[in-house]
Amino acid sequence: MKSAITISLVPEALHGPFVFRYPLEQSFQAAAAAGFDAVELFLPGPDSASPEHILALAAEHHLSIAAVGTGAGMLREGLSLTDESPSRRRDALAFIGGMIDFGARLGAPAILGSMQGKPTGPDAFDLLAEVLRVCGERAAAGGVPFIYEPLNRYETTLFPRLGDARRFLLDRSLENIVLLADLFHMNIEESDLSSAILEAGDRIGHVHYADSNRRAMGFGHTDPKPIISALHAVGYSGYLSAEILPLPDPETAARQTIASIRALI
Ligand code: LER
Ligand code: MN
User: Fold this and answer.
1) Could you tell me the CATH number of the domain that includes residue 90?
2) Over the stretch 174-198, which tens digit does the pLDDT of each residue have?
3) What are the residues whose beta carbons fall under 8 Å from the beta carbon of 73, sequence distance 6 or more?
4) 155 close to ligand 1 (CB < 6 Angstrom)
5) Which range of residues forms the domain containing residue 92?
């Protein structure tokens, strides 16, 4: 397993779970100085930074790009892929399609988190299946998977639990879609984190490595040992990405995350 840490350039996400919010160069430098293998990028949109510039920074600092978040579409423009309005759904799909292509140029998958929306209509799951099919195909054309993230009950009406999301992907024959195990959301929704990971099995494609209170692992009450054992047991070799609050400050949160990962891996 490899380590990653979040970088956000989205002003509207000031209170979100992102560690480094410095200009891009400085954030890459901070991630490398803390000893991370990769960064996860949360950017305002697909045109906010050039892929060439990001790849040059990654090469300079010996970092990979673990994934790109898409939540700015919701945060800045209120876009949801399951919006009741077909024209808003089209705008949302155009935004996330751009993010998928942008990520693919970095060799990184895009994540569907908050842009999945909170639909309550009778066709909510059909809408989700359709966008996952389209996004999975678009990502495949760029040579990357597409990541679907179950979120806690306050952030979506769709799938709060990993096992249910896995069954949905199988039932609907959705391909090139992997699941994101965000330990913060799981702490709210799952009966047991390790069992949920074992149930999701090899469908897990990304991990948000956060403690129970969304601080760095070790600053809350989650026991990471059985979680890491479960990830080993399902053959997971991807990123443990620190999508966490930058508390008490970004550098301390980064150091604590790396210390936790190094103690366990
Ligand atoms: C995004 O990765 C996430 O975990 C959400 O809580 C953001 O709304
Ligand atoms: Mn997350």
Assistant:
1) 3.20.20.150
2) 999 999 999 999 999 999 999 999 9
3) 45, 79, 92, 95, 96, 99, 115
4) yes
5) 2-264
